[in-house]
Amino acid sequence: METLCYARVQSPVGSLILGVSEKGLRALEFDRGQFPPKAGKSTVWSQSERALADYAYQLAEYFAGTRREFTFRLDLHGTDFQLECWRALLSIPYGETRTYADVARAVGRLHAYRAVGMANNRNPIAIVVPCHRVIASDGTLCGYGGGLDVKRRLLELEGARAVRAA
To answer: Which one, out of 20, 97, 127, 161, has a CA that is 20 to 30 A from the CA of 39?
Structure first.
């Protein structure tokens, strides 16, 4: 049985839930009041602000505009394709954007931009695995689990050039 620790953290974009395993950050979600999930056959969630202190500190620095890269370990779980996409997201520099087609090319699947969108939708570590940096080919904002207003705010925080809403 694996025990994962979690904590709620307040941020300028609302309450966030952070979940961590012994290997690193496993989850960063927008708080919708549905966390923690029910314990599974192999997973139990335990609330612990102490276990998440460094993660929360680095997030606070990010929101204050003093951190551009996170240095903690990640514990990503997904399909091979999702993991490829999430690694491609991690390579998008702070303050820059890419299109879904750009990410598809980066993972060697030229026409898989819709599949890239679905992988982004399943991203378990919002903000840190920066799916907010992915925009539509026409420069519009689209498809963000935290909402387009949050996506716009994150991009503005990073100084990304202005993009328009879909």
So the answer is: 127
CATH number assigned to the domain covering 2-64: 3.30.160.70
3-class secondary structure per residue, the chain: CEEEEEEEEEECCEEEEEEECCCCEEEEEECCCCCCCCCCCCEEEEECCHHHHHHHHHHHHHHHCCCCCCCCCECCCCCHHHHHHHHHHHCCCCCCCEEHHHHHHHCCCCCCHHHHHHHHHCCCECCCCCHHHEECCCCEECCCCCCHHHHHHHHHHCCCCCCEEC
**The CATH fold of domain 80-165:** Arc Repressor Mutant, subunit A (1.10.10)
Whole-prediction pTM: 0.92
Enumerate the CATH 1.10.10.10 domain ranges in the chain, comma separated.
80-165
Q: Which residues are marked as active site?
A: 131
